[in-house]
Amino acid sequence: MSHRLPVERIVQPAILHCTPDTPLCEAAARMAERQCSSILIMRDGEPVGIWTERDALAVDFSDHSATRVAIREVMSSPVACIHAGTELGEAAMRFRSENRRHFLVIDARGNPEGVLSQTDVALNQGMEAYLRLREVGAAMRSTPLVLEADVLLSAVARRMREMERDAAVIRFAEGDLGIVTERDLVRFIANHPGDTPIGTLASRPLLTVSVDDMLIHARDLLMDHKVRHLAVLDDEGRVTGLLGFRDMLAGTEQVYLKDLRRALEQRDQALAQSRQHLQLAERVIDSSLEGIIITDDQARIEFVNPAFTHLTGYTLEEVAGRTPAVLSSGRHPPTFYQEMWTTLQEQGYWRGEIWNRRKGGELYLELLTITAITDDESKTTNYAGLFTDITHIRENERQVRQLAYYDPLTRLPNRRLLDDRLSLAVRHAHRHRQRLAVLFIDLDHFKQVNDTLGHAVGDELLLSVAERLRDNLREDDTLARLGGDEFIALLPDLHEVDEATRATQRLIGAISQPYVIDSHDFRVGCSVGLSFYPDDGGNADELIRAADAAMYRAKEEGRNTYRLYAPEMDTRVRSQLALETALRDTAETGNGLSVHYQPIFDRESGALHSAEALLRWTHPERGPVSPGEFIPLAERSGLIIPLGRAVMRMVCTQLKAWQQAGLDPVPVAINLSARQFWQGDLLNDLKAMLKGCELDPRLMSFELTESTLMHDTDRGISTLQRLRDLGCKVAIDDFGTGYSSLTYLQQLPVTTLKIDRSFVSDLGTCRKGGCAIVAAVSGLARELELKVVAEGVETDAQLSALQQYGVPLVQGFKTGRPAAGEDFAAAYLRGSAGAPRLSD
């Protein structure tokens, strides 16, 4: 059978279609004329439904108006689709498993290529060998629907639908037989015969075959006479069944299932025979306490013994046919396995220790021996593996190493273990071209604590320091104690130097917090030196020496601080500090700050709806600084609050200037950071600015992210309500990117949801995730009576898709780029009567 033939090779490219408003009788007439079993309903070039011969069974022929309804009222939707490259065998299985008769064939872009029916599959699967060997009785339906000739058409359709039959045999008084099929019902819908006795409409005589005839003979009859059904007669001439292409297709699948079952039985028989020859060896293997695994020459598992199941948790049934990679722990690099197999192929065996993973996820260490088994011609036919779990042996060794590699007071790694880990981390960083940092940490004035409060307090202080350091490091970082009050922290897998400096600041801040030990309340600081691989050294000793030197420089320059060993890295940190200083000066004076405004349009009317205020900063020496650089810096340094006040002040001043110029400004939205939202003077500052500029509060709106409200939802709702009571509108920005909760969303006194640009970018593409979220947010907003703004609209395709999902407001480079106040006014604020539109 041609199971691998793609369906695009057999489907007819011409698609019979109509519009949703087409009367059912007219659509049926087209199907009857073209002798098609289905018709596709299209709207604006997109398939929205399908009506098939099977749907004709649902028509009430006793109701004259039932055949004149618009086809959209009776069509099936959505349309089941299948890709053009799907193999014929898979298509046949889908017809059977999904109980369908038609699939719309689509190409890689989702464009319709044709309609595939069960008959198409039956005619193209190359079933001749099967049909020549099997009789009609093996495939027919043995319970045909037989009706008398005086039964009305409406009753026939109803009985066919209830019994799920695609044809009914009609018996006439004189003894001959006729037939009515789903295709006949389509023709009746087109011709309006009324609810007449079926005898006047049935096709006769009915072609018949004997139960003993070969299926190939029945297939030839169906094709020669261009019919779909044959009546099956027994030896006495009685109708015992019906036979059609659909029955042949189902019968074929049954044959393949039997063939598959036979193949599995043959495999089991072969395995049983093999076991008989190796019975003695298997008894030895089964009683062995060591795990044994046997694979074929391609490393596919064929046999495991009970000890393997006991040690790994996997039974033979679970691993047969798979490779030993099912046990892989993920601890070894690919080169480990490459070297293993190279040795095995060159020497015929391999022996070593390897980490594997049990079925339950537990790691274990095994001592493994693999041997290649060859035939008389020295060709490898199998591999045999013998292994023992040595985890407990290594655990005992670990306890011994604990005494040699860990600090007895803090239980942290000591200098010896640190050297091992640092050397390993250096090799890993070199292999993956990554950076790592070494932090040399020395407590300030620790000797004074020891001398004045005693060594017991000093030991407790070291334990507290070690705990604070551990709590502020990542899980993959290493913290070691060199002795006395000196600690080393190893930070691998760094992408930038700032990660290490930020971690250092956290550590200094944590250690500087007060300590209360044995009723003694005191503080200590620490000096930290940083070195980086590969910048400051190529091995463990060089990196530690560099960090140690940097630590002493930190002590010399004031203590309770940190220094970098590399001058160029120190310069970078100082550059960041200088940028923060310049931003702080700018926040205080306002020099270099400006606000640009991006328009928001009503998509349907094209009218200007509002604008969003976007802060810009021009450094006195560097020039324009990206918001992506200075906004996070402002957040970290706490400057975001004065910058936020400056934005509100500049927006109020601009709105007042537009009004004084005789323009009709639109509302302007201001982004609120989390810190600005939660600071207590927000409402008072806003009221003072509005009053000072004599502005209507409705000209001001605010945007904040979902995560801003997660800290204290009740207090956040109260603040939002006060903004609303003042007359300002409130929008949730980047909606959908946070942990949205419908419970609190319906409680929020907001007016607008802004769909994040990441979802808008999916519109007009093959990615469906963003489309689904846009549709969901739009529907949710309508139910909650909220407005929706789509951010980041950049293409015509996105703009067109937003119309489909009913998103009323759009913002992005496609509709308008951010502009300074004067440019924005010139482009968009020409008075309400002459305001520009989206099409401009």
From TrEMBL:
* Domain GGDEF residue range list: 434-567
Q: Which GO terms describe its molecular function?
A: catalytic activity
Which key words are in the record? CBS domain
> Start and end of every PAS domain?
277-323
Q: Is Repeat given among the entry's keywords?
A: no
Q: Which residues form the CBS domain?
A: 11-67, 75-131, 202-260
Pfam families listed in its UniProt record: CBS, EAL, GGDEF, PAS_9
Q: Which domain of life does this protein belong to?
A: Bacteria
Ranges for domain PAC: 348-402
Q: Which SUPFAM superfamilies match?
A: CBS-domain pair, EAL domain-like, Nucleotide cyclase, PYP-like sensor domain (PAS domain)
In what residue span(s) does the EAL domain sit? 576-832
Q: Which cofactor does it need?
A: Mg(2+)
Q: Has keyword Nucleotide-binding?
A: no
Descriptive protein name: Diguanylate cyclase/phosphodiesterase with PAS/PAC sensor(S)
Q: Which organism is it from?
A: Alkalispirillum mobile
